């Protein structure tokens, strides 16, 4: 062996196309979590638990809005009151990552949860801190992690799980892939197919 020749790490490094996100612990995100989405029942558990927070109205509404509209955390922190049509019951969704914007219907329960926040707000942003500044992604993730621990979830929670929960719910109820793509604002349908591929209803009736 040539001692002057530097050791090569090529054999230990996966090709660029195969690299995966790695946490500070050295493990991939997939290895740290048993799954990446929540069920509608688990979402409801979170909403109820969030109402007991110091800012219960805000936090419970945040969980509902993120889930109902499949919002990314960046879309949540940038959500403005001007995007919400209380009279028409609609949300004008602006997507990040060059996603397709859309107008979503808003359930009455969601509108009722948001009205008290609107009355007491002096900010153009919907979800704000005590100082009136938009909540940061880190603050939202910390809040969700604490909620998950309080609810006894055996896996750590993060904001993107609410978006995934929306996608899987739509797929599980038989929504076609193109509609899910438009609802979630995916620019490329490849990002949508993951939901329909894992939906349990995909093979329903095959052995009935």
Describe this structure in words.
Strands 1-2-3 form a three-stranded antiparallel beta sheet, with no helix packed on it. The N and C termini lie far apart (65 Å). It has a single domain (33-196), classed as Intergrase catalytic core (hpI Integrase, Chain A). The protein is globular, with a radius of gyration of 20 Å. It is built from nine helices and three strands; from the N terminus they run ααααβββααααα. With 208 residues, the chain is mainly alpha-helical.
Relevant terms:
mainly alpha, disordered N terminus, 208 residues, single chain
Entry summary:
The protein has 208 residues and is mainly alpha-helical. It has 9 helices and 3 strands.
């Amino acid at each position: 062996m040539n001692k002057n020749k530097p050791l090569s790490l090529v054999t230990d490094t996966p090709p660029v196309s195969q690299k995966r996100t790695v946490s500070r612990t050295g493990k991939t995100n997939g290895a740290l979590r048993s799954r990446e989405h929540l069920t509608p029942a688990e979402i409801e558990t979170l909403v109820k638990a969030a109402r007991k927070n110091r800012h219960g109205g805000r936090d419970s509404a945040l969980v509902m809005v993120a889930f109902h509209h499949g919002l990314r955390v960046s879309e949540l922190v940038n959500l403005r009151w001007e995007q919400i049509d209380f009279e028409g019951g609609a949300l004008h969704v602006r997507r990040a990552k060059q996603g397709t914007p859309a107008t979503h219907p808003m359930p009455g329960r969601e509108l009722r949860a948001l009205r008290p926040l609107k009355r007491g707000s002096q900010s153009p942003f919907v979800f704000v801190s005590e100082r009136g500044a938009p909540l940061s992604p880190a603050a939202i993730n910390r809040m969700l992690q604490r909620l998950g621990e309080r609810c006894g979830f055996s896996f750590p929670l993060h904001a993107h799980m609410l978006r995934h929960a929306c996608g899987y719910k739509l797929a599980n109820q038989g929504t076609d892939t193109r509609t899910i793509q438009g609802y979630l604002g995916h620019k490329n349908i490849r990002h949508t197919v993951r939901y329909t591929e894992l939906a349990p209803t995909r093979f329903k009736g095959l052995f009935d």
